[in-house]
Amino acid sequence: MASVKKVVIIGAGNGGVVAANQLAKSEGVKITVIDKSPFHVYQPGLVDMLFDEKITSDSIRKETRTLLYKNIDFVQKKVIKADIQNHEVVTDDGNKIGYDYLIISPGVTEKNKFGFPPWHDIESITKIRDSMEDLNGKNVVVGYYGLIKCPAAPFEISFLLKRKYPKANVTLLNPVSQPPKLQVPMANLLGQTAKEMGIQVKRGFKLSEVKDNLMVSEEGDKVQFDYAIIDSPIKVHKEFEDLSDSTGLIPTDKFSLKFKDFDNVFVIGDATNITFPPKTGAMAHFEAVYVSKSILSDINGQEKTKFDGRAMCAIYAGINKGMLVYMDYEKSTAQGRNLAFYVSKKMFMSLYWASLTGSINNLLEGLSSAFATKAIPAN
């Protein structure tokens, strides 16, 4: 009888939970998920929470234990080291958990150079929401200055700001002069929406200094602001810095999602150094599905496939309008803008929890395959 293989998953975010539940459907594996938080947050819902007081923390948060299959062990501890050489994970109580396969999905933290309030957790977004007064007539700046999670999110925030405060002077700072070819279809629709809504987009604005109510770029351009929401670049948490490269993220083969040349260690989610397609929950979901299949194929001696980098998500694109974006490593498309995709974006706040258990995997796979046929090669 084959021995049971131990799979340890660091992190109970989107990727970690999806991978665990996918693996739990098979026999011959013992799965342990480790995360310091008892809660799992639907992160795209933070943008909604910022502008809709009807959305509370309970709307976008559930206890992690309730999202995992019963045959999965959940250890609520902080990981202080992933000891790759000795095949074990060390938690802050000194416990060492051995593994045959390791999935690293710990999420990221921020390189907050200028001290702007973070907004990627419930507590932070609540503080920002509470700090908002009537912004009509004010100079409001939204933007980012490095590699962030979802590059569409600052646009979404700008659109929702302009919807709530139509007389606000909204400026969006984008450090990228020209979007990568894969992101051109999405960037074109987002730019079109911004123009129609009277939002000024400053491309190539690389923030270098903030003094009083003035932002200065590396080229010396200046932008005045009364209120600002600025996203900071990401990096791995300090506990995983020994695994990271010069980008501050963990080197990951984009086709196998393996860490360096370790056949039994995988990295998924925001912590990978894969930058295109952009980092999103959708990307983490499809990475998790791929890695779980890859591990089971390895256990069963079956042939493994290559990950194609697919990701698909709905994005707010104006007042009561949304768009749907599909990307993989080679091609992309952006469909919309229309009410249907706006409604889809709203509905996914409820469907998200089902996506974690795998109960709508066939739907997501079918939709992604359908939109893949509409995608245009980047080269």
From TrEMBL:
It holds the Pfam family Pyr_redox_2. Gene3D superfamilies: 3.50.50.100. Residues 5-275 form the FAD/NAD(P)-binding domain. GO terms for molecular function: oxidoreductase activity. InterPro entries: FAD/NAD-bd_sf, FAD/NAD-binding_dom, SQRD. PANTHER family: FAD-DEPENDENT PYRIDINE NUCLEOTIDE-DISULPHIDE OXIDOREDUCTASE (PTHR43755:SF1), PTHR43755. This is NAD(P)/FAD-dependent oxidoreductase. It comes from Sulfuracidifex metallicus DSM 6482 = JCM 9184. The lineage of its organism: Archaea, Thermoproteota, Thermoprotei, Sulfolobales, Sulfolobaceae.
